[in-house]
Amino acid sequence: MVLCIIAFFVFAVMSIFSAKYRPLAKEGLKCVFKTITFRPCDTGLDDRIKARLVSELLKFSPGAAKVLNKHFVIFSWLFVLLTFGSLAYSIYGFYNFYVYGNCDGPDSVNGCVLNDITGDYGRFSEPKDLIVPTNYDGLTEGNPNGTLKIIEFGCFTCPYTKKAEDTVQGLLQEYDGQIYYVFKPFPLPNHNNSFEAARAVLCARDQGKMWEFRKEVFKQQDVCRTDGTLAIKELAQNAQLDMDKFNKCYDNNETDAELGKYVQQGKDAHIYATPTFFVNDKPVVGPKTLDQFRCEIEKKDSLVKEIGCLLGQWWG
């Protein structure tokens, strides 16, 4: 009776490719229907499958055949559970592919997926689909005339944007004098208090303490996501901001127009995950190591460096 459930699924799939399996699929369906309506399955399909399996196994291992014959019901239930588990996982994979463009879900790109804000193009996007921003507006650091220009779209409550922060600081130190770094806040609506955190950082920027406050927001990211404005204002106080000015800026949404501009720029660039970087116009999606960024920056200098970077990524 139990094995009929598996037989139905197996033969139903096989009948798509060969008509000879259709009678068996119908027989399996009939048995399943009788089972779920609490009637005895009298087709004999279970017994025929059992006899076939035991006889085939007997050719290779009489001991294993004996165990299978004795505990056939237990093995049948295990196969049923595996079948339904596989079916559920397959459905989950199809859902992820439809929603995120991959079978692994939102974390497959090692970034916070933005399909809910960017629209249909976010489902199946790849780095090659990204459009380079046309300006360097944003939270900036470094030399505007530098030869290395890096734009980052990030969300202050995205754990992957936080993960990339150490690498960003490393780049600013290593390429000091050469780098011009631009951060464009791109808050995700499915992350609690993402807009509030971005608004607060812009307000801190107006007091010349963007970097100090940004560091605190990333450090206390979980608290900001759960406690929102209360935690954000406490961080502002700890960063020694002028709270009268900060509260006026934050409570009156004075930076929302600027924030909306960055969000629109992200949409125009077809950003589909944070963090997303443009390294001298070359898109890089997700947090990367400092070595990986070095490769993106320096591999064009010579063929030897490019080959070395490729080998390093392959071994790493």
Automatic annotation (TrEMBL):
Keyword line: Disulfide bond, Membrane, Oxidoreductase, Redox-active center, Signal, Transmembrane, Transmembrane helix
Gene3D superfamilies attached to this UniProt entry: Glutaredoxin (3.40.30.10)
Residues annotated as domain Thioredoxin-like fold: 138-298
A Gene Ontology molecular function term of the record: oxidoreductase activity
Keyword Cell membrane: no
Positions of transmembrane segments: 72-92
Entries under SUPFAM superfamilies matching the protein: Thioredoxin-like (SSF52833)
Similarity field: Belongs to the glutaredoxin family.
PANTHER family: DISULFIDE BOND FORMATION PROTEIN D, GLUTATHIONE S-TRANSFERASE KAPPA
Protein's recorded name: Thioredoxin
Organism of origin: Candidatus Bilamarchaeum dharawalense
